[in-house]
Write the structure tokens for this entry.
Amino acid sequence: MRRGKKNTTDHAVVGVVTAILIIGLIVAVISLVQTIYVPKVMEQRESEHMDKVAEQFTYLTSVIDEQAADRTTSIPIATSITLGSKELPYMMSIKAFGSLEIKDKARSITVISPSEIKTFPIGIITYSSTNAYFLDQTYTYEAGAMIVSQTSEGNLMMVRPNFFVAYNIIDDTLDITFDVVNISSVGEKTIAAGYGTYPIQTEYDTISYKNITNANSINITTPNSNAWFLYINQSMINAGLEYGSHFILINGNGYVKLTLNYPPLITDKVNVFFKIIDIQSQIGPGWVE
């Protein structure tokens, strides 16, 4: 009888130890999945979401270009932007959020000549991510260009604006043509935040022209100065101009300055042609005046 009780006790102890070992193994596996697998999956998911936003902003850029070319008023077109991504089911993870905003007069372009100083305020459309696992990125549509920026990596131009440089080496004339898109908000629907999908509506409004002769310099005020610097510098070089001889380009803190009146160019042979395209916009379904 005593031996039987001892066997029963031994079996009970073995059962408890086995249960503890199984629970410990389960906890270890879950911890391993939670600390290694989940972050990698979420990082990949947020990276894919950033790629999706880039595609959506590229499409938004093409829509605005078509509206500027077509010039049909009172026909708003909606482009969907996905602000964030959801967490993993049954696992501890964090959602990715984002914000979409229309900013009136957030940038400016200034042209200086001996006879006048002309400044064009420029509105923008911008998306900013709040990721938990992947690098935060910002996509901005400004002055006809689409720019992606990262806090640690700087900014680059993904879609180029309509900025054309023509240099006639025979008579030393330089013509710069710049189709500038100005975004302006309508109503109070200028911002959205969260992780859902929101439409941003754009509509062609007006177009105006400004020609400036004897231009000395062009100054673009923008935090995305690196993207503009690289693009303008390459545009000038592609036109056959030499840095230091024909132009000077400065990448400042929040601005890019292009100086045009360097020899052998003659000041009165530098012409800048602006086309200002006004696009109205608002965030959310339903156009509200």
